[in-house]
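Table S2 (text version). Query chain:
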Amino acid sequence: MDSATRHLLRRLAQQYVWWKSPDDALRQPERVIAQVMNMGDYDDVLALVDQVGEDELRQVLTHAEIGQFNERSWAYWHYRLGLTQPDEAIPPLPERRLE
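Corresponding structure-token output:
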């Protein structure tokens, strides 16, 4: 991760992953990214997209963990990143499976 990305994710972690220190949060940058994708304001989301790129956001979304996204954000990002076309159904949110 380059220094500009690290700097941005550190700032975002302070705001969106408030229960951890920024250093702890940055051990799992994909969780910081997911949290901003789920809860971020417009300016923070634009900064994130500009810095890490849409491919990284697609990776975070396709490997999302249970509870990282609400239904609204899940749908938005699938359409926004071209993972789902307007005439297609959105994949279900990740869920726990008991075997």
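Notes on Table S2: The chain has a mean pLDDT of 96. Helices lie at 3-16, 22-25, 29-39, 42-52, 54-62, 71-80.
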